[in-house]
Design goal:
There is one protein chain. This protein is mostly helical. The chain has a single domain, classed as Four Helix Bundle (Hemerythrin (Met), subunit A), CATH 1.20.120.520. Helices cover 86% and strands 0% of the residues. Helix 1 packs antiparallel against helix 2 and helix 2 runs antiparallel to helix 3. The longest helix has 32 residues. It binds fe (ii) ion (FE2) (2 copies). The site of one fe (ii) ion has 6 residues, from helix 2, helix 3 and helix 4. The site of one fe (ii) ion has 5 residues, from helix 1 and helix 2.
């Protein structure tokens, strides 16, 4: 298997969450209310799965290895655009958390921010995934020989294996230090 195999499979799960966000937008429009518990679930998914687990493997392993190669200008520019998308997604999820907290403490005006953030994520992810799946991942593999690809796949598995432990170590550290 090529290392892009698990990344593309992860894209399919992210797409399913984007559909759930679209459905939530419809519910917000119909009821003029939003569901904070849904937002908590979506935020956890985008932070832990989409960002740390998925973007983490892209940025820390695949993109880092590509940065050590002599990339064609087109591929370097695409990679920079993908990294900028990750930064934007992270910021938008942070804004969504802040807007949800305001909403929970009684600010109905923050619902506009909530719908704005969800709309941005719904627009961003399908475009971002299409760029990777259709225009970047396959050409990126051309820079690595078979052995390098196998090593990268092993690093991906190792990254995933430690992720759940890292997450719950942080949960406990936050509780113990009063941050949760
Ligand atoms: Fe990405
Ligand atoms: Fe991706």
């Amino acid at each position: 298997m090529k290392p892009i195999g698990p990344l593309m499979r992860e894209h399919r799960l992210i797409e399913r969450m984007v559909k759930q966000l679209e459905a939530e937008l419809g519910r917000i429009n119909a009821s003029q209310r939003c569901e904070p518990s849904f937002i908590d679930i979506a935020v956890d998914f985008f932070r832990i799965y989409a960002d740390r687990t998925h973007h983490g493997k892209e940025e820390d392993i695949l993109f880092a290895a590509l940065a050590r190669k002599r990339l064609a200008k087109e591929h370097r520019e695409t990679m920079e655009g993908l990294i900028a998308d990750h930064v934007f997604a992270r910021k938008t999820v942070g804004r969504l958390v802040a807007a949800k907290e305001k909403y929970v403490s009684g600010s109905t005006a923050s619902m506009a921010d909530i719908t704005d953030c969800i709309t941005e994520l719904v627009k961003l992810y399908p475009r971002h995934i299409e760029k990777e799946d259709e225009h970047f991942f396959y050409p990126s593999m051309e820079y690595f020989n078979r052995r390098e690809q196998d090593e990268m796949l092993d690093r991906f598995w190792e990254f995933d294996r430690t992720m759940v432990h890292t997450k719950y170590q942080k949960v406990l550290a936050d509780l113990e230090e009063g941050r949760a």
